[in-house]
Amino acid sequence: MASTCGGRVSRNLTALRRSAPVFAALGDETRLRLLAKLSSGGPLSITQLAAGEAVTRQAITKHLAVLAAAGLVRDARTGRERRWELDTAPLNTARSCLDLVAQRWDQRLERLRALVEDDAP
Amino acid sequence: MASTCGGRVSRNLTALRRSAPVFAALGDETRLRLLAKLSSGGPLSITQLAAGEAVTRQAITKHLAVLAAAGLVRDARTGRERRWELDTAPLNTARSCLDLVAQRWDQRLERLRALVEDDAP
DNA sequence: GTCATATGCAACCTCCTGGTTGCATGTACC
DNA sequence: GGTACATGCAACCAGGAGGTTGCATATGAC
C-alpha cells in the first residue's frame, strides 16, 4: 500500500516533483510545531493553535494556508469556529519518496561493496 | 537504528525542530531532482549535475550548498573535480519524524473510532 | 608553457515568504 | 439588540531564496 512513488523511474520522478510542495510546507519550524499539535491534540481552532506560539494569529492563519495547499491539513467549520485536522496521506507519500531515494543509494553502495570484495578477496 | 525521533515527547519536539532545515532543503524541485540523480547516478561533479538542468551551474552550486548545510550531501575533491555524494542519514531521521506524526494522528483516530463503537454498539 | 576544463567568488536583481497592524465580518450568548 | 469572541481581509514591510552575469583561479592534457 501507500506508494505514489512506486512504479517505473519516470513515475518516480513525477512523484518527486509532486512531493516538493509537501516538503516545502514541512520545512518551517512553526508549521512542524502546528502539525505536532494537531497530531496529538486533535482538531483544533486557529485561536487554539495560535495559543502559546510566539507569532500572531494572522501568521498562524498563513501557515495553515500553506499546510492546506500542500494537502496536509483540512478545515471544517463548526459554528463560528474553524477546526483544523491532519491529513496523513501526503505524509505517507513523502515518506515513501524518501524511502525510494535512500534505497536506491544504499543499493548502489551495496553493489560497490560487492564489487570491491569480488576484486580483492 | 535510525530514530532521532524516538524517546519522550519533549525529545520528539526537538527532533522535529531539527528536521525543519532538512525538509526545507527537500522542498525544492531542482534539489529533489539533484538528489534523485545522485541516488542512482553515484558521486557526480557539479558540471555533471548541472547538465540537462534548465538553470545555470552557479544555481546548482547554490542548491548543493543548501543540501550540504542540511547534511544531505557531502563533497570530496578528486583533482580539479569536486564530486558530490548522498548521505542518507538525515533522510532516515526525517522519515521517522514523519512516521511519528502520522502514527500519533492515526492512533487518535483509532481511539475515537473505538469510543464511538463503544458508545453505540 | 599553453590551452581547455572545472570550479570559486562576488555583485546584482526579482520575487516570495514570514511577519505585522488595522479594521471588517460573522456568530454565540444574554 | 448588544457585547464578546472567532475569524477574514488587505496593506505593508524586511529579509532571504533562487537566479543571473562576469571574472578569477586551479588543474589536467599536450
Task: Describe the model.
The structure is a homodimer of 121-residue chains. By secondary structure, the first copy, chain A, is mostly helical. Chain A has one domain (9-119): Arc Repressor Mutant, subunit A (Orthogonal Bundle). The first copy, chain A, has five helices and three strands; from the N terminus they run ααβααββα. A three-stranded antiparallel sheet of chain A has the order 1-3-2. In chain A, helix 1 packs across helix 5. The longest helix of chain A has 31 residues, at 89-119. The radius of gyration of chain A is 20 Å and the shape is elongated. The relative contact order of chain A is 0.15. The A-B interface holds A 9, 12-13, 16-17, 19-29, 32-33, 35-36, 38-40, 42, 86, 88, 91-92, 94-95, 98-102, 104-106, 108 and B 9, 12-13, 16-17, 19-29, 32-33, 35-36, 38-40, 42, 86, 88, 91-92, 94-95, 98-102, 104-106, 108. Chain A binds a DNA duplex (30 and 30 nucleotides) through residues 28, 30, 45-47, 55-59, 61-63, 66, 79-82.
Give the topology, please.
2 copies of one chain form a homodimer.
Chain A: H1 9-26, H2 29-41, E1 44-45, H3 46-50, H4 57-69, E2 73-78, E3 81-86, H5 89-119
Antiparallel strand pairs in A: 1-3, 2-3
The structure holds a DNA duplex (30 and 30 nucleotides).
